[in-house]
Amino acid sequence: MVNPRSIPSVVFRGQEDTLMERVHALSSGGRVILGICGPPGAGKSTLAAWLAGAFPADRTRVVSMDGFHLSNAALDAQGLTQRKGAIETFDGDGYAALLTRIRDGHDPVVYAPGFDRAHEEPIAATVAVERDIPLIITEGNYLLADGPSWTRARQQMDEVWFVDVDPDLRRQRLVERHVQFGKTRTEAMAWVQSVDEGNAEFIADSRQRADLIVHLVDDLDVPAAVG
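Above: the chain sequence. Below: its structure as tokens.
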């Protein structure tokens, strides 16, 4: 039996300098694409925003995998509406192609899509990634997943960090998020149990492929972007 490889880990509270030192070391050779992976509700987007806010605004961009959600119309046509958030409900090939364009640096600017949580729809061309931006932070559930498109995406990233958090806190965050965007509390709890938790278990299987585990013990205070 092969033993799992040992992955370095950082507890966020008190070890923020370790994360910043790691980013600086990565960026010493030019443009860096850093991936932030983890299950729904782990705090990926918050950690990405925290990291981005620690650098000047003209030196970093955050690109979310959520911009590659299939539209609600596409999900409905494929019978996937009740699976929204599962790996098959994302355009993995499109995500890999975007990161490849960013990595290649041939275009003066690459426009990345965003995601409107109020309407649960992707929105095209919301993030401008200029060629001279040195640090790209990309976050999402499936950055470490198996499969051709996800492997191509992973090959464009210099490192991928896996966000680890207490499961009860993660589920609580998810319920509150679903309620905030229109579900009743009963509907939110049912969705978390029937959809989000299955996705979380799937994502947890990819944890061993990460370069670093970041343990978030509570919610982060996101700083404003540096001058």
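The longest helix spans residues 185-204.
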